[in-house]
Design a protein that fits this description.
This protein is an alpha+beta fold. It folds into 3 domains: about 45 residues, no CATH class; about 100 residues, no CATH class; about 35 residues. The strands form 2 sheets. A 3-stranded antiparallel sheet has the order 1-5-4, with helices on both faces. A hairpin with a 2-residue loop joins β4 and β5. It starts with a helix and ends with a helix. About 15% of the residues are buried.
Length: about 190
């Protein structure tokens, strides 16, 4: 009886080792890659700032968050900011020219995905002048850069850049209108 109790765990551990070693080395590599990707996704979720899921509330600004990954530091920042500005544009009633292509193929062993996204960051219906990067967080992710970015668009008088732009436009319009008015007066006096 004692021999059986001693041999049972030994046989079970040998069987487990035999099962693992009989697995195709390429299947093991694929499993390791999947596990590594899973860890990267979990890490990016764990390290994401709170404002990625809970935007600040304010009556003085509209907020939006974006995240992106790139092999280039600046590109990760630019992509994340473009995504956040696109969200602000939509939140303010505008439309964003965005095109996405996604192909997903499911097989017995998993899924393969190929995706493409093109975003035109011009927001024709909404003026995003004065939008600022309110907060930013960067981290390494699998040898690439991940950027989390929080963009704020001040509204009303809080948006000094937009107000300045409006004032400059009013001054140009006023100047053009005054020239036209004086021309009209000059033409009437010549008659």
């Amino acid at each position: 009886m004692k021999k059986t109790l001693i041999l049972l765990p030994l046989v079970a551990s040998l069987a487990a080792c035999g099962t693992f070693s009989s697995k195709d080395p390429y299947e093991r590599r694929a499993d390791e890659i999947r596990e590594q990707r899973e860890k990267l996704v979990e890490r990016s979720l764990d390290k994401a700032p709170k404002w990625m899921t809970e935007l600040p509330k304010s009556t003085g600004a509209v907020y939006a968050a974006g995240t992106a990954v790139s092999g280039d530091f600046s590109m990760a920042d630019d992509k994340a900011k473009t995504i956040a500005l696109g969200k602000i544009c939509i939140a303010a009633g505008g439309t964003v020219d965005k095109q996405s292509k996604v192909f997903i193929m499911d097989t017995q062993n998993g899924s393969t995905e190929a995706s493409e996204m093109a975003i035109r960051s011009m927001c024709q219906n909404v003026d995003v002048t004065g939008a600022v990067v309110h907060d930013i967080k960067r981290m390494s992710e699998g040898g690439r850069y991940r950027t989390y970015i929080l963009v704020a668009l001040p509204v009303g008088e809080a948006n000094q850049l937009r107000q300045q732009r409006v004032n400059e436009q009013l001054a140009r319009t006023s100047e053009a209108r005054s020239r036209e008015a004086f021309r009209e007066l000059d033409n009437k006096s010549k008659q």
